Every structure is written in structure tokens, then in C-alpha cells.
Amino acid sequence: MRSRSGGCLLLACALLAMTLLGSTASAADTYPTGGGQFNGGAEGWQVAEASCNVPVLCSAGGGYEDGDGRPAGSIEAETNIGLNLLTLFHSTVVLQSPDFEVGTGGAATLSLERRFDPGSLVDLAPRLDYTAQLVDRTSGKSSTSISGSIDGASGWSGDEGAATVQTGHTYAIRLSARTSSTVVGTGLLSGATAARFDNVVLTVGAGGDNGFGGGRGAPGSGAAGGSISTERLAALAPATLAGAAQLKGNRLFVKTRCPARVGRACRISVRGLLKKRSAATGTRSIKVAKGKTKRLVLKVKPRAKGKIASRKRLLFKVRVRAGGSQATAFKRLRLLRR
């Protein structure tokens, strides 16, 4: 009896040690301090830049918004427009985190949630173009992890992008929000637009798990075995289109990717649009392995060729399927000519 009890005790200790080691190996570090949830304040974030192209009638700024977020509390980039504005406007607001030092380097994930409120300026068809950059204070370099566009009002939605950090380097996160009108005002409109950001966090380690789930058996990831929830897939869907689209004759080249965090291969369907309900290209589907990229070629519709040729950006509709989940997103990409 003593021998068997001792053996069981040793086995239990060994299992406990393995569990602790596994837990340590999968630990993830998040930056900056506070986790970017903005539940009680701006957490040291500041406005690094604010400008507008129309003096006096247009002003830009930013700060903390305690009444909006997921949950309530976010940082915002705001544009104020006065009466008698008779031209197109564009403003830029840059929000920057406090500096933070990374303890362990390697692969990382930068993630955020964002929402755009055009306010009473909806008749000017305002658009938000935003980027999230990781600034390496030590080396002086910066890299863009997230970029996207929003036309008109939007609810809260998530974005994430890959990053790489070096042990002991000091970093900051920089959010750039450019708000612009696409319709000339009559001079009778005034009001404000607001681009809001919440849950802005850099996650290092554990595959860059940012707390949304997505690991094997992680909360919100669906069933075990690598499946992914529809909500999680919807947050990742905009990231399946990467870089700029390239136009050559009647063909449009688009780079697709299956984020590693999906946990399995993606079936990605893409269509170029003149507007949300007006197709510019046919639809093509492609299977992309987890963590890989593939180029997809779309055929431009004859009636849309002339309209596309004069554009700097083009809207795309992307549908992603992974396992039993699927999600749809819209994303505007820069348009290059070959």
C-alpha cells in the first residue's frame, strides 16, 4: 500500500509539473500597461498630431470618450466642421501610446476594435482611413500592422495584424485616423465626426494570442480541435486582404492571406466593387493554407473598366470560410497600375 501510494504521489507531482510548464510556455505578455481597455481613462495615450486642410471652418483633435466602447471607454479622433464650408475637407489625428519596454522578443499581434460615427455630417459621405503602427524607439524604425477604411457609420468591429519585437527594445503604438468628405458641402451643414478605438493591445508570446480566443480550446474559439467561432472569424476577415490591388488591362491582382490565428485553411472569395451593391469585377474563390498568402486574379467587368482606371482606391467584398464558420467583410485597398 505504501509503495502504491508513493507511486501515485510521484505521478501526481509529475503531472502537476507538466501542467505548470505548459502554462508557463504558453504565457503571453501584453503591452502597454493597462491593456488598452480605457475603462477608467486614456491610460497615458496622447494626441501626437491634429490638423485639417480648411482653416477656421475645420478643426481636429482627440481625447478620451467615457461613454462609448467595448465596454464603455475609448480614445477618439474627432473632426469639427463649421457652417459655410463649401469644399471637401480632410483631417488627420494621430493618437500615441506611452512608451513601453518589451521583455521578450519574437512574433507578436497588434489588435484593436474601432468604430466610426459621422454624426450630423452624414450628407457629406465622410470616410475614415486608419492605420496602426508599432514604433521602435530603440532602432528608430516603424512598421504598419493594421490598415483599413470605413465608409459611413459603423458599429464596433475588430482588426489585428502581425508584428515582430526585439527583446529589451522600447516601443510605442501609433494610431492614425484620416477623416475626409467625399461630397462637397452646401455650407448649411455643421457638426462633428468621431473615430473611436478600444482594446488596443500588443500581445507577445503564445502565438500572439490577444485575448479574443482562437487557440485550441480557447474561450470564444468554438469547439476544440482548431475550429473558430463566427464572431472571431468576422474580426479576422478584413485581414484576409493584404497590400495594394494591382490593375493590368482588364485584370485585377489581389493578395489574399489566411491569418494563422484562424487555426486552419481558409476558403476566401473576393469581388471588387464600385459601390457596395455595384460589382466592378467577377467573383473568384481560392483556398489558402493557414498562415500563407496567395495571389488572386479578378476579371474587370467591361462597363466598370473606365471607372476603375481613375480611382486611387477600390472597395472589395471578401467572404471567408473556415471549418463550419463563415464571415463577410468590406475593405478598401489602394489601387496601383502595372
Taking all Cα atoms into account, the compactness measure Rg is 23 Å
Strand arrangement across the biggest beta sheet? 16-15-18-19-13-14-17
Number of domains: 2
Largest sheet: 7 strands, mixed
CATH class type of the largest domain: Mainly Beta
Shape: globular
Distinct helical segment count: 3
Question: Which SSEs are present, and which pair or pack?
Answer:
Layout: H1 2-25, E1 29-31, E2 46-52, E3 58-69, E4 72-81, E5 90-96, E6 100-101, E7 106-117, E8 127-136, E9 142-151, E10 157-165, E11 170-180, E12 191-204, H2 230-236, E13 241-248, E14 251-257, E15 266-275, E16 278-288, E17 293-299, H3 302-309, E18 313-322, E19 325-337
Parallel strand pairs: 13-19
Antiparallel strand pairs: 1-12, 2-5, 3-4, 4-12, 5-11, 6-11, 7-10, 7-12, 8-9, 8-11, 13-14, 14-17, 15-16, 15-18, 18-19
Explain what you see.
The protein is mainly beta. A seven-stranded mixed β-sheet has the order 16-15-18-19-13-14-17. β3 and β4 form a beta hairpin. It is globular, with a radius of gyration of 23 Å. It starts with a helix and ends with a strand.
Task: Throw out a few tags for this protein.
Jelly Rolls, Immunoglobulin-like, 2 domains, 7-stranded mixed β-sheet, 6-stranded antiparallel β-sheet, 3 helices, 19 strands, 51% strand
Short description:
This protein is mainly beta. It is built from 3 helices and 19 strands. The strands form 3 sheets. It has a 7-stranded mixed beta sheet.
